[in-house]
Amino acid sequence: MIGERIRYARQAAGLSLRDLAKKIGVSHTAIAKYEKNRDIPSSAVLIRLAEALDVNVDYFFRSKNVKLCVYAYRKKASLSKKNEKRVTNQIRDWIERYLDIEEILGINVPNFVVPSTLSKRINKMDDIEKLAQTLRDEWELGTGPINNLTELLEEKGIKVGLIEGLDDFDSCIILEKETGPIIVTRKDLPGDRQRFNLAHELGHLIIEVDECIDLEKAAHRFAGAFLVPEKMVIQELGRKRHSLDLYELHLLKHKYGLSVQGWIYRAKDLNIISDKLAAKLFKLFKLKGWHQQEPGDPYPPEKPQRLERLVLKALSEKIIGETKAAEIVGRPLEEFWREAGIEHQWEV
Question: Which residues belong to any copy of the HTH cro/C1-type domain (predicted)?
């Protein structure tokens, strides 16, 4: 229904009925009638709606209508219900476009499967170390750095997306039969924080805990253990340390894609440093404001590229035209190629 599509797009844009009405020059009661399918907007109004909501007119007639249920959020307490709806509807738009190109190309997407050898049940926090390494072994990752976590997850059947414009949102995981697992994180995060979010949400897919264990803390521990296994932490830091050099940890951040604070947690969790030293370091980070932005050059963020590769494949094979390609990538092709040129120094 067109009305539902208008409501989804309005919520994704973070606009009230009155905000949208003002933008397109109609009353807010008219917008409400459109959204409740009590009235149908004219072609001229639909065009103005598309411009105001930054969508293609075809969006309102899209056949896909995915129902989403967010399993777990990583967010600040200040994230309002309005912005939760904004997040959900931005994700809905993205995943509908994703499913559209997969259907057009007739792609059989690999289902995400938890390896049968994995003992998911956690009785104590230290069990997570073995669980994380077992998953690495099943995925043939060894113990070294994971160069591109985003690509790895998509290869395993987990769709990864980025959304922007919401400072109070970090990441979430969505479980749906139609789509398979979806992990979404904020676009403008440093790469180490982004990777930690992805690994954290992977933990939610993997871990089952006893009532006495906090699931969020368990997912945190899993994220660190998956990104840097116990063996490598000991190899890099040694079995016992009385102090840690922050520049040493910064270099390790760039080797493994785990933040300096993440390395401090790994050292504390594995009893390489004392709780007292860890607390002292975290106090320093808080005092300096480094808990929000760590010192030194940031670890580069990862960008999901599977959706774009599928669109370019379909466009190259003339399965879709430029208008459809622009709709699926979510922006004009001129803008897409301009961004590609800047990012990859690509000129043809």
Answer: 6-60
Q: Are 310 and 101 in contact (CB under 8 A)?
A: yes
Architecture in CATH of 1-61: Orthogonal Bundle (1.10)
128-141 pLDDT tens trace: 999 999 999 999 99
Residue 214 CA to residue 122 CA, distance in Å, equals 11
Residue 184: the pLDDT is: 92
Burial class (CB in 10 A: 0-12, 13-18, 19+), 25: exposed
Q: Reply yes or no on whether the pLDDT at 70 is more than 70.
A: no
Tally of residues, the chain: 348
User: What share of the chain in percent tops pLDDT 70?
Assistant: 96
Phi, then psi, of 99 in degrees rounded to 5:
-65, -30
Of residues 196, 217, 192, 201, the one with CA closest to residue 112: 201
d(CA 290, CA 293): 5
β partners of residue 182: 159, 174
Which pTM was predicted? 0.86
Place of tokens 């590609």: 340
Question: How far, in Å, are 55, 58, 249, 307 from residue 330 at the CA level?
Answer: 8, 12, 38, 11
**Tens of pLDDT along 159-199?**
999 988 677 788 888 877 777 899 999 888 999 999 999 99
Integer Cα distance of 293 and 109 in angstroms = 37
| β-pair partners for 79 | none
* Structure tokens that stand for 96 in this block: 């509908």
Distance CA 5, CA 1 (A): 7
Task: Please give the residue that has the higher pLDDT: either 250 or 78.
Answer: 250
Helix, strand or coil for residue 72? strand
- pLDDT tens column, 311-320: 999 999 999 9
Residue ranges per structural domain of the chain: 1-61, 306-344
